[in-house]
Amino acid sequence: MTSSPAKKIISTAVIIIFTHSLIYAQIRLNFFAGPQITTVRYYVHNVKQAIDFKPGFIIGAGAKIEFENRLYFSPAIYYSYKGYKATFDQTASPPDLTAINNNTSIHTLETAFLLQYDFNKNPSHFFIKLGPSLDFQLAGREKFDRLDGTHVSRSMKFNFTSYGRYAASAIFHAGYEFRSFILSGYYEYGLTDLNNADDGPSIKYRVAGITIGKYFK
């Protein structure tokens, strides 16, 4: 007859194996990549500045975790190459009190916490996702011209008196899932200011793009 400690060990092992199997049966992991265009909502002293789009891309991994009746938790983590081009008729720092334009390239690491709704339970179906994201500005570079005609190219400074390290956004996805592939279009609406400097500009991300993804087996 099996001793009590042995029974506990066996029972614990069975529970762990069962739980492990159950969890992994309900979680689907995926990777994705795609192009995007980035711009910002840029105001200096409440005056809107002229902005151009800048091309970029994202690449990362995500999950689809069963939640309730076609509703899923769909977190993701990914690298995002962002940036913007701005032309100023008002001046502020950053980038510089005499800058007349700015062209930035920013490397970010972004985490998204999305809810996904599938329109049906077929293997192939339409879906939408919605939720917040938080991105960390890893590094950046800016190029701008001054009023005196000099040109500046330098690394962006991320601190309490210049650009901020973190930015929060709201994200909306709409797409189609095949049996193992995912096609999605998305829009990212910046909620927080990329600038930390007092009396500086208001800079908020606006991003649109498409991704192609594949589920792991």
Commentary on this structure:
This protein has a single domain, classed as Porin, CATH 2.40.160. 11% of the residues lie in helices and 62% in strands. With 217 residues, the protein is mainly beta. It contains 1 helix and 11 strands. Strand 7 and strand 8 form a beta hairpin. The chain has an 8-stranded antiparallel β-barrel.
Helix content estimate: 10-25%
Strand order of the largest sheet: 1-4-5-6-7-9-10-11
Which structural category fits the helices and strands?
mainly beta
Number of domains: 1
What is the distance, rounded to the nearest whole angstrom, between the alpha carbons of the first and last residues? 41 Å
Highest-level CATH class:
Mainly Beta
Q: Major sheet: size, sense and barrel closure?
A: 8 strands, antiparallel, barrel
**Unreliable segments of 5+ consecutive residues:** none
* CATH topology annotation: Porin
**CATH architecture assignment name:** Beta Barrel
The dominant shape is: elongated
Radius of gyration using CA atoms only: 23 Å
One letter per element, helices H and strands E, the order comes to: HEEEEEEEEEEE
What is the averaged pLDDT score? 90
**Oligomeric grouping of the chains:** single chain
The number of E-state strands comes to: 11
Q: Count every helix, treating DSSP H or I runs of 4 or more residues as helices.
A: 1
Strand content: over 45%
Short recap of the structure:
By secondary structure, the protein is mainly beta. The chain is 11% helix and 62% strand. It has one helix and eleven strands.
